[in-house]
Amino acid sequence: MPEEPGLFEVMYTCRAMRRIKPDPVPEELLLKLADAGNHGPTGSNVQNVRWVIVRDAERKRLLAEQNRKYITAYMAADPVVELPHHPQAKRDRMREAVVWQMEHMHEIPALIIACLEFAEPQADAARAGGGGYAWPAVQNVLLAARALGLGAAPTTLGLRDRAAVKEILGLPETVEAYCLMPVGYPMGNFGPVTRLPVRDTVHWDRW
Ligand SMILES: Cc1cc2nc3c(=O)[nH]c(=O)nc-3n(C[C@H](O)[C@H](O)[C@H](O)COP(=O)(O)O)c2cc1C
Fold first, then answer.
1. Class in CATH terms, 7-188
2. Among protein residues, the one whose CA lies closest to atom 11 of ligand 1
3. What pLDDT, in 10s, does the model give residues 66-79?
4. Helical H runs in 39-173?
5. pTM of this prediction?
6. Which atom of ligand 1 is nearest to the CA of 135?
7. CA 117 to CA 111: how far, in whole Å?
8. pLDDT digits (tens, 9 = 90+) for 130-140
9. Residues 168, 139: Cα–Cα separation, whole Å
10. Which of 21, 78, 110, 136 has the most CB atoms at less than 10 Å from its CB?
11. What torsion do the CA atoms of 103, 69, 75, 89 make, to the nearest 10 degrees?
């Protein structure tokens, strides 16, 4: 077992890995990812993060179909404007990877869906109380995957149709899905993520 990279190396090379090989991921590793997720914080330590890890071909196909529907709409609407920190060529590469993921999502060995379980049904998932509790767990999964040499990416578009996703995953009324991470062995290499220079983002003492 190669030595795990250090935390900062993991964080700085944890890019969205969308091109994933179909080779299966051992169950122990998938549980390790969920456990890393569970070690993130939740408000009042309620620990209401739950995971649905989809390996079944038919359910993956149904989720891939959802993703395709909303990615297609997003792509059609997105004017692909160049951002100051993200040049056109890089945006084009990102779109190509998004399309690759859309075409192959059903072949990716595991789709990990981060959910929250509430005491009561939530009227609106987007505003569901404490919805943010899922995100530290998601980031822990992404970092843990990177540390273990697995590729993953956070996705949300395929979860837009709440009713459809609940049906596919058999979620109880009190459970909401927040993020779908396709996980497996990456086809490419873990490159450095490019982010804004820190001094462009920090204000000392007040804005
Ligand atoms: C809340 C959230 C939602 C996202 N939704 C999607 C998505 O639906 N589909 C997708 O391909 N990527 C999605 N992403 C991934 C981002 O596009 C990606 O993290 C960003 O472009 C940075 O990529 P990099 O880490 O490779 O630089 C999402 C990321 C976040 C944080």
1. alpha beta
2. 98
3. 999 999 999 888 76
4. 57-77, 88-104, 134-147, 162-169
5. 0.95
6. 1
7. 19
8. 789 999 999 99
9. 24
10. 110
11. -20
